[in-house]
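Task: fold both queries, return tokens.
Query 1:
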Amino acid sequence: MDLQILPVTEPKSRIEDENELVFGKQYSDRMLIMEFDRSKGWHSARIQPYGPLSLDPAAMVLHYSQEIFEGLKVFRRADGSLAMFRPEDNVARFNRSAERMCMPAVDEKFFLDAMLELIRLEADWVPHSEGTSLYVRPTMIATEPMLGVRPADQYLCYVILSPVGAYYKGGIAPVKIWISDFYVRATEGGTGEAKTGGNYAASLYAAREAAENGYDQVLWLDAKEKRFVEEVGSMNMLFLYDGKIVTSPLHGTVLDGITRRSVLTLVKEMGYEVEERALSVDEIMDGAANGRLQEAFGAGTAVVISPVDSFCYKDKCVQLGDGSPGKLTMELYNTLTAIQYGRLADNHGWITPL
């Protein structure tokens, strides 16, 4: 399949003050699109001007939620060069999500190469300020106009780009987490490990309730016993517990996070023992009180590393230490961002230069 590049005739105006950049509000001039039909596979790959999509009201994505997406970033380094962090892993996860949602796989090499070409064409959209980046959002939706519950025969895959500001504009800020004892995000055998919109829609009600009560995030427990920690809505969770790194195992309900993988590699190199096991909510609440739980942090593309200030469960709240980011938490944040922005050598093959 060839990649066609169409001209941009009306370039957009950009935000001049990068301090005004917010997440997901402005988009670049171009987008990557390719189409799928069951009878001929992927076709019509093109980079075209950014613009609205035309969908039939009966498009199956609107009725049966066949949809997947990814999220990754492009970083501008001090010398002006551009780099991405583990993009091949995002593309591979995109295909795993597609498999779970009965959607067609993309050719990983072609898709990554086309995405990199889009980014090269839009290089001027990558912000320059410390902590900023260009957010990349690959998406696939079912477009066949059909009312009936089955996998669609037609799909649209596209990639859009959005310049985003620094996540922590006033310095890294620990979050208050509410542990839900009623709502659940995913169940074994469900779609929890896929990056699909329905998982996020299912989290909105609890997230709104948490925000109304002064919390920043919801920590989900397992659906069967509502006892064991799984993940936060937009992050994998990791804990420094009894001097070991503990995180939920990947058993179908937790997203296989790229940042999570990177953190586990780094902490092993630092000499920490890693336990991928189900940590109970009692261990968290008691551990924070007696000191066995030393640090807790989330890991994800948007935040990189997000330190936890406190956990609240039912009618009890516990703070970790004095509420400030832990030593390991900050070391991981500084190491990962230094690799991404080129201040530290990449010894793992994680960086793709553009």
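Query 1 returned. Query 2:
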Amino acid sequence: MVLSRRIFLKGVLILAGLALAGAVGAVLFAYSGLYNVAASRGHPLWLNWFLETGMRRSVQFHSGDAPPPDLSDPALIALGAAHFQGGCAPCHGAPGQPINPVYEHMLPSPPSLSGHVPRWEDRELFWIVEHGLQYAGMPAWSGENRQDEVWAVAAFLRRLPEMDAKTYQALARGNAEIERASAAQFVNTGRSALHLTACARCHEHDAAPPSGLVPRLAGQPQTYLKRALNEYREDKRQSGIMEPVAASLDESQIAKLADYYASLPTPPANNAPPGKVFAGKRIALEGDPKRGLPPCESCHGAAALADYPRLAGQSVEYIVSQLELWRRGGRAQTPQGDLMAEIAERMSDEQIDAVANYYAGGGGR
């Protein structure tokens, strides 16, 4: 018994010594600089296999099994497409748009997603877009707790392999127009392209947004529009779609955009069921004292505070999605957002649907 114990302890010491020697050797090897870290050299086959296998197994392990929303929803697909062109295509390319050679020489090289998307399940695509990938240059989603936006990109990616260049451009462009540049314009400003800050992709003044999940900005108060863009720019309002846009705008550009959209007429009413409109009108005008709900019109009516958005003419999908987002704490980072989070938590699903239909149907003008 004593001999067996001595043999066991000796084996443990030997293994510990080997582990320590291996760790010291690894540190000395790293410190020596012998390993070539040049991206132009590429990874050895064994290291490439190790990283690829580890990445795939990690995504499978951590991605969970939460059921996705309906990824065939056109509103989700259109919203994801609007972001993909400015946020993803520069590295990954797109149908009819090859990967930029600069990004192609990263290590690892960003893959063309049309061929890679089918290798992943929906939950895995969602996890990669939300959390990014270490050692791959793939960033995490910049809008914290904006799983609704991440699912929109996942919905678009699921459609991407079957898209040709024409279909892709129509989705990515939305309502924006790309003018053909003359030779002189091309020489001075480069080719016309669909830039990240092309607001008309989603927020054109005389057309409905390409996705019902996008707000209509026409007729919104200038004060509110400036506040919203500055909150996105300062990371006070979370959105992986809008934060990159606002971050590339200066104060002058924000002021011009706010002036432009504020000067436009309020969008027309949408069709809404009369019964829901009637129920929503009561909440909008009177609130619900039993649930501690103030009247919506006190902040969001046509003659209400300039620092708050007008809801008349917004789509049912957009209003419902934002109230659900407040319920989850996704827009509670500002004083106004914190107030709305409390209100949204007190509303029933039926009340949210009724209020959304009231304002979509033209209420609040």
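Both queries returned. Flag for query 2: The CA atoms of residues 176 and 347 lie 36 Å apart.
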